[in-house]
Fold this protein.
Amino acid sequence: VDCYRVVATSALREAENQEEFLGRAWEKTAMQIQVISSEEEARLSFLGVSRGLPSLESPLVADLGGGSLELILEGGAEPIFLSLPLGAVRAMEQNLKITEITAVMSPLAFHKKDFAPHPLVMAGGTATTLAAIKHSLVQYDPSLVHGQLLKREEIADIYNMLERMPLSLRRRLPGLQPERADIIPWGTRIILLLMDILEKGEIIVSESDLLDGVIWSLA
């Protein structure tokens, strides 16, 4: 490996012991971790998605992680970037109600008209997991996930199924990694609310995301 880059996102951006963590990571790995801004995170996610789905013209990219939701649109008159303190893990840990999630998403209303003509592409573990559950993938196959179209009704059906399932059964559901079983309903709920606010009836799932954007930024 001639060139590499290690980045950290919202969890480390907000950590009170960020410097301690970076110091220990350096001691154990001799790797310099870059704590990137939310803007840089969104830019890299957009780069990963746009390179991974080159046939899509001017997508609206939404990257839902554990602690934040980044949206970026570069195909309009001028680039639009939003970073919201909303992620699957954060929503679960704070036990956010639907009204509270919607309140965090309120800035989206200002850009609704700008976003309207553009296909919504979702990156991140929640979106790829939903596509994997749809196909009941016992063995994860990126080719069956990347570029997958998911209708709102399909996502809602999966969400209702997940909500009714006890955690022990969720852990055995084909397509769902056991370690995501606790947070997946929260991430799915965020995606559904995002689609409703933006009035989008479908999403395109991208397997290429921030990690691919980091590689492309080095290429």
Q: What stands out?
A: The chain has two domains: 1-35, 38-218.
